[in-house]
Amino acid sequence: MQVVLLAIVTFIFAIDQFSLTELLYRPIIACPIIGAILGDVKTGLVVGGTYELMMVGNMPVGGAQPPNAVLGGVVAMIFAVKSQLPVDQALGLAVVFSLFGQYAVTLTFTFMSGMMARADKAAAEANPKGITQVNLISMCFLGTLFAILAIVAYVGGEAAGTALNAFSEKASWFMGGLGVAGGMMRYVGFAVLLKIMLADDMWGIYLAGFAAAALLGNVDATSGATLLLCAFIGAAIAIYDYNMNVKIKSITTSGGDDDGI
């Protein structure tokens, strides 16, 4: 039953990367669902939150695909739950397997490039059914590839559990390295996101957020709601900045001799 359910949700997550909600496949949502299937929702929450930080900056640019978040999350959950590996070590191994998801997406794009002529013909003929059929073929192809890889990972992960545990005892230095690498990747993912999004004039607000989190997190009365309070502060700054920019634009566009400026 676990294998069947895992294949079904992986099929849906694979499609969700490019269609449907484009939210379900994110590790912070997908891993708890996989954890419920594998019988450990708590580990799913921990792995999902950590892996989301690792993948938050990974996004496709043109045809280039980053390591895949879906298959990496599935494998991380399998190793963390079935093989009883620590979360950081499971995530370190998952990064390797996430490359298979990257290859699966690239293979799908390559296969579908030959189908574009069929979609163009359907569009020229004003045939929406033909376009829908092309989309369904791509969804089924990608979902099936991911479902197969998830089943292989489940069977292989369960079979490799004893060997991995024995290896972790004999080569603790290697597993420790995986743990360190898995711990670092969450910061790398966030750094990639900042490189894309952070503007020079936002550094002060960014550092102020760290200071607010440190201060609020060390006060007993506010430590339980630190993230929420920081979000409120950020929303207040955003609203103020927006209103000020609107007022400045209205003054510069509507000002004249009559208003004394």
Describe the fold and architecture.
The structure is a single chain. The chain has 261 residues and is an all-alpha fold. Helix content is 78%, strand content 0%. The longest helix is centred in the middle third of the chain and has 32 residues, at 128-159. It is flat, with a radius of gyration of 23 Å.
- Give the overall form: flat
Rg on CA atoms, Å = 23 Å
The major pleated sheet works out as: none
Instruction: Report the count of strand segments.
Output: 0
Order of helices and strands: HHHHHHHHHHH
Task: Give the helix proportion (percent range).
Answer: over 70%
Total count of helical runs of at least 4 residues: 11
Strand composition percent: under 5%
* SSE-based structural type: mainly alpha
Spans with pLDDT under 50 lasting ≥5 residues? none
Average pLDDT, rounded to a whole number, is 76
End-to-end separation in angstroms reads 74 Å
Task: Provide the fold topology.
Elements (H helix, E strand, L loop, with lengths): L1 H15 L10 H12 L2 H15 L13 H13 L5 H27 L2 H9 L3 H32 L1 H10 L1 H26 L5 H15 L8 H29 L7
Helix pairs in contact: 1-2, 1-7, 2-3, 2-4, 3-4, 3-9, 4-5, 4-7, 5-7, 5-9, 6-7, 8-9, 10-11
